[in-house]
Amino acid sequence: MKRTERFSLYVALTALTALAIDGVLPVMPMIQADLAIAPPFSGAQIITVFVLGMAIGELLIGPFSDAAGRRPAVIAGLIVFVVGTILAATADSFAAVVFGRFIQGAGVAGPKIGTRAMIRDRYAGTDMAQVMSVIFTLLILVPMIAPAVGAVIAATFGWRGVFWAYLVLAAGLGGWLWTRHPETLPIEKRIPLQFRRLARNTRTVLCRPDVTPVIIATGFIFGAQLTYFAVAAELFGAIYGLSTAMPGFFAILATGTGAALLLNVRCVGRTGMEAPILAGVVLLGVSGAALLGAAALTQGHPPLAVMLGLGWLGFFALGLLFGNLNALAMRPLGDLAGLSSTIIASISSLVAVIFATTVEAMAAGPVWAIAWAFALAALLSAVLIIRAIPVSSRREIFRAFHIFR
């Protein structure tokens, strides 16, 4: 397999998670209109339950990929994803859709975690950093186009057509991987499943005071974004009456995250991870506080330009935070990097689901939900990050911002 084809496969497998979240956003109102919703279900669960399944799948797939190999782990995840897709596509009740989304989320952990492991097996050091930079740069495009693609498919085939498209995509990726990409983990390097060892190493990771607060902070930040995903359909449909334009608005907001990722690639080598993290937390807090003020002055219905402007600032902040927080949590873990990446992904996703579900349930509308999510995530994350960063590193942050001269 040539380098270009390998990169393309890695990008496609990694992008499945974003496609499964962003592509379904335009059809959420169609699903709710077609299938009766009764408590304890809500439209937002189409997103949050998917992430809950993903969190559980992430916890299982990492050790499985170390024991069975990367290709079996990815293929197993894709098979589970396809099962969930069929359940959702053929559902005759909203509860069945939610259950299918949970299975989809558990399955998507396979390509998400397995692909990262394949990259880690094949590349190291600077080469690995370059590969990941290329992949994440290309992934910037996914949130910009996925809602539009979902809307086009739904306009032709209905909301169920989006799920059938997921099935075709997953099947195609599985065939591509199995026929073209070799196994990257030799048999002699595989680690048998030993639950006692896994429990011991997990305890080692979670007992570190410089790691666990960052994992939880990552969950709050992801939860802020997840809150937006959960209420986006209601925001642009019920509040602004522009549901058909939602893919375009989402693309605008996604450019904020893309701009931050590109800026971070250029600057993080000079400033370190801590300074962009601090900048991201501050900007997210400013965005949330300003949006709270705008919501209070307009009874939860600020002008669309204000909503998009402050939302763009919030998404820019999220772009500064995601990769740097993950790297900050991974930095002290050394030989436990493989297991640690799984733990970080799983626990942060669980925290995000709890955070987003709570905020969405308590807020008095979608604008309020996004505003509170941004503000609270910034505040809580700032406290946790400061607690985790050594005093010497805090001084470096202040120097980076020219607070101390």
From TrEMBL:
Q: How does it sit in the membrane?
A: Multi-pass membrane protein
Question: Which residue range or ranges hold the Major facilitator superfamily (MFS) profile domain?
Answer: 1-393
What Gene Ontology molecular function terms does this protein carry? Answer: transmembrane transporter activity
Q: What is this protein called?
A: MFS transporter, DHA1 family, bicyclomycin/chloramphenicol resistance protein
Report the principal subcellular site.
Answer: membrane
Q: Which UniProt keywords apply?
A: Membrane, Transmembrane, Transmembrane helix, Transport
A GO biological process this protein is involved in?
export across plasma membrane
The record's Pfam families line, in alphabetical order, gives: MFS_1 (PF07690)
Xref: PANTHER family: MAJOR FACILITATOR SUPERFAMILY, POLYAMINE TRANSPORTER 2-RELATED
Q: Which GO terms describe its cellular component?
A: plasma membrane
Q: Where are the transmembrane segments?
A: 44-61, 73-91, 97-119, 131-155, 161-179, 211-231, 237-263, 275-298, 304-324, 336-357, 369-389
Say which domain of life the source belongs to: Bacteria
- Entry-linked InterPro entries: MFS, MFS_dom, MFS_trans_sf, Sugar_transporter_CS
User: Which organism's genome codes for this protein?
Assistant: Loktanella salsilacus
User: Could you tell me which SUPFAM superfamilies the record lists for this protein?
Assistant: MFS general substrate transporter
Intracellular or extracellular location(s): Membrane
